[in-house]
Amino acid sequence: MPQFPAKNSKNSKEQHTLQKSSSQLEVKQAIISSLTLMDDIFIKIVLQDKQCTEFILQVIMENDSLRLKDQCIQKDTPNIHGHSLVLDCYCEDKEHNLYNIEIQNDSQEAIPKRARFHASLIDIHSLKKGQNFKQLPKTYVIFITAKDIFKRGLQSYHIERIIKENGQPFDDDSYIIYFNTSKIENNSLGRLAEDFHANNPKQMHSTILSKRVAELKSTDFMQKGDKNMNILLERYRQAALEEGREEGREEGREEGSEKLAQLMGILAESGRLEDIKKASKDKRYRKKLFRELNLM
Questions:
Q1: Cα distance between residue 279 and residue 34, in whole Å
Q2: Is the distance from CB of 160 to CB of 168 less than 8 angstroms?
C-alpha cells in the first residue's frame, strides 16, 4: 500500500487549526457575553457612540434637553508640574459645560481627593492663556461607582462648595457627582443602575444602550475584528496563555488556551457569567474552578 504521510500531516494540521480557532472563538464569546457597562474598557467602547454618553448624562443630570457638542474618550490631561491623568470620557455640551465621566469599581480609586484632582486638572486645561477667570466653564466630575462609597444609602451624591457660615452656595461652578449603581430604586436612576450591571442587552431598560451593547456583543461584529474590542479581549485572553508563558513551551500555551476555552464553555452553558469574568482575570480563582469542574 502506498503511504501518504505529507497529506495526512497536512489534514491533521488543518483540523488542529480549526479546533484551535473554534476554541478561541468560544473563549471570546464567553468573555463578551459576561461584560457589563461597569467594565472600564468595555464602557469606553460603548461611549464611542455619543448618543450613549448623552443618554447617561441626561439621566444623571436629570436634564432630558442636554445635548453634547463634542466628546473625547481617553482624554490626556498632562501636568508638567506633577501627576497627570487620562480621563475615561471628557465631553462638552452645547451650553459649553464640561463633563468628566469615570467608571470606578474600586472604592479606593474613587476617594474625594481624586475627584478634587480631576476637577483641578480640567480647570487647568479649560482656561486658555489670556482668558479671564470668569470664563471658566461649569465642570462636572461624575464618578459612576460599583459600591456606595459614602455608605449613606443614596443613589447619588452631589457635592459643591458652600459658605460655611450661612450655607449659601459658593458659586464657583465646580461640581462633583457620585452615582451609586448598587442602589436600585424604581426610578430613572435605578433603571440606569440596572443597565450598568446587565450583561444581556435584552434585559436593559434603555433602548439606546441596549442597541449599542447588542451590536458590540453580536457575533458578526466580533468576527469583523474591531480594533477596540480586540484590545479588550486581549486583556482577558492573556489568561488563556499565562501558564504556557511561564513554562515557555508552545504545548503549554496551546494546552492553556484549550483548557480555558473548555472552562468558559461549561460556565457559559451554566449561566455563570460572573464566574467567567472573574476567572478571566484571576489565576487563583481560575484554578479553583478547574478543580471544581475536574478540568485539572
A1: 11
A2: no
User: Sorting pLDDT into bands at 50, 70 and 90, what band is 9?
Assistant: low
* Alpha-carbon dihedral 108, 112, 113, 116, rounded to 10 degrees: 130
pLDDT digits (tens, 9 = 90+) for 107-139: 888 999 999 999 999 999 999 999 999 999 999
Cβ neighbours, 10 Å, residue 106: 11
- Strand 85-93, strand 68-77: pairing: antiparallel
Each residue of 178-204: pLDDT tens digit? 999 999 999 999 999 999 999 999 999
- What are 1's three cell numbers? 500500500
The span from the CA of 32 to the CA of 30, in Å, is: 6
Crossing angle (nearest 10°) for helices 250-269 and 5-34:
50
pLDDT of residue 227: 63
pLDDT for 233: 64
| 3-state helix/strand/coil string of 35-81 | CCCCCHHHHHHHCCCHHHHHHHHHHHHCCCCCCEEEEEEEEEECCCC
Q: 126: buried, middle or exposed (CB in 10 Å: 19+, 13-18, 0-12)?
A: middle
Give the whole-angstrom CA distance, residue 267 versus residue 274. Answer: 9
